[in-house]
Design a protein that fits this description.
about 250 residues, alpha+beta, two-stranded antiparallel sheet, 6 strands, elongated
């Protein structure tokens, strides 16, 4: 009688439960190692974008001044409004529109990305808000600064109604008529030389903030602002010599 040879099982092609669990554990460890690095890279990218936005605003401000008798854009309110629209002609973005390749203002609002810091995505405002609802940047105004850090002296004007007004570098929008921004060449003559910088020395155009990031930790603002600095311990600042620098949040407290 002929005996048939024994059949052998083909080798298993899948993973065992132990191998799957080991793979999952390895992935978990890698994720824990990589996620902080990814977060740091994203935060660094956000800060770079914010710095780039401020530099571009500085270039646009100087182009505007060159075309407008050396005057800074104005009259402008302190807070940089996020809306480009025809019925808000005192907003700085309205003055700078031709120099930022933005559309001609109409009655339909446009929200220029140059006024949007991508780090706002990480901020919780407590109520549903879009980034354009939040004021992140403010132009220089003595009203918004501690007394010892008001490095520019306001000018005093008397308007057509006989009312006396202090006028900062960006003009005055609520006088009658509105008062335009200062001429660039005159800014240094308005430096208050009685003031001293926190680290010593006298203020210069390179140490006076033209436009700076703001948040609720600095003071109570009349508009919604981030509850804290969007870049952690630092604010990005455009100075009056038109360079951009990150400074500690405490610099203007």
């Amino acid at each position: 009688m002929q005996i048939s040879p024994m059949k052998t099982r083909p080798p298993q092609s899948g993973f065992t439960l132990l191998e799957l669990l080991a793979g999952i554990a390895i992935l978990a460890v890698l994720s824990a190692l990589l996620l902080p690095a990814v977060g740091k890279i994203r935060n660094s990218t956000d800060r770079t974008k914010c710095v780039s936005n401020l530099r571009t605003l500085g270039i646009a401000i100087n182009l505007y001044a060159t075309d407008n008798d050396d005057r800074l854009p104005g009259p402008c309110p302190t807070g940089l409004g996020r809306t480009l629209v025809d019925n808000q002609r005192t907003q700085m973005i309205y003055h700078l529109q031709p120099y930022l390749d933005l559309p001609t203002p109409t009655t339909s609002p446009v929200y220029p990305e140059i006024l949007h810091c991508p780090s706002l995505r990480n901020v919780s405002f407590g109520t549903p808000m879009k980034w354009q609802d939040i004021t992140l940047y403010a132009a220089y105004s003595n009203v918004d600064l501690p007394a010892d850090k008001r490095y520019l002296k306001d000018r005093q004007i008397v308007d057509d109604n006989g009312t006396s007004w202090p006028v900062g570098p960006w003009g005055r929008s609520n006088s009658t008529p509105g008062y335009p921004g200062w001429k660039r060449i005159t800014i240094s003559s308005q430096i208050d030389e009685t003031k001293t910088l926190p680290g010593g020395g006298k203020p210069t155009l390179a140490t006076i903030p033209a436009i700076r990031e703001i948040d609720a930790s600095l003071k109570t603002w009349p508009w919604p602002t981030p509850p804290k600095a969007v870049h952690g311990a630092f604010h990005n600042v455009l100075f009056f010599d038109w360079h951009v620098e990150s400074v500690p949040v405490t610099a203007y407290q």
